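chain below, 242 aa
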Amino acid sequence: MAVVILTVLAALGGLPAASAAPPPLALVYRGPATVPGTAESVAEVLRTSPSRFRIEYVGPTDTPITPETLSRATVFAQPGGPSLRRAWEAMKPNAGMIRDWVAAGGNYLGFCVGGYLAGATPGYNLLPGDTYQYSATPGASVPDTRAARSPLLWRGLTAELYFQDPPAFDLVPDHRATVLATYVGGQIAALAVDFGRGRVGVTGPHAEADNSWFVDDGLIPFGAVRPDLAHDLIETTVHRLP
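prediction:
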């Protein structure tokens, strides 16, 4: 009888519509491995990306980072923060868990210090290579750790972004990474690459920076607030785009 009723309801258009699937979940780290405001800026570009992520903050005063928490997520995002040493001290207890989750199919996004942490010395060891300090390279467009706006090439087009002691990425010769951006001098500034069954996307410059970052540091934001480039990093990583 129940089957007959359902069949009739379906024929008459009386079955309730299936509920839409919720947006994918992005975990955004917030804690001592970040500086105030960076987590919220990363959350905003994830929310406004074409994938329209819903956000859950994780860290010591938010949702704990556990295998169960990671299992619910599509993305783990590591925002910018203090020095690499201090960030690693805060994140080292979670390193194996995050690495295993990415290898099993998760997506890691790293912004500035989050990009450094994707490397190996120290870090999560998620890259086919390692990271190094761009500002220390000869001819760097910003040769110190001050905040600045500076040019780079993103997919071959000139752009300017907010820099503050960003990493560059030193990859092995036979890497299969998608290089999204390069610094003045050709050093890799942003990329996406597979790791196990998962994917890693990292940027040295702060593509997620909004107007307030520039204003707070006495910089002109016009033309250098580029959430579209952050969205490119996100979508290229999560959807394995070329």
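Residues 227-238 form the longest helix (12 residues). The longest strand covers residues 188-195.
thats it, cya
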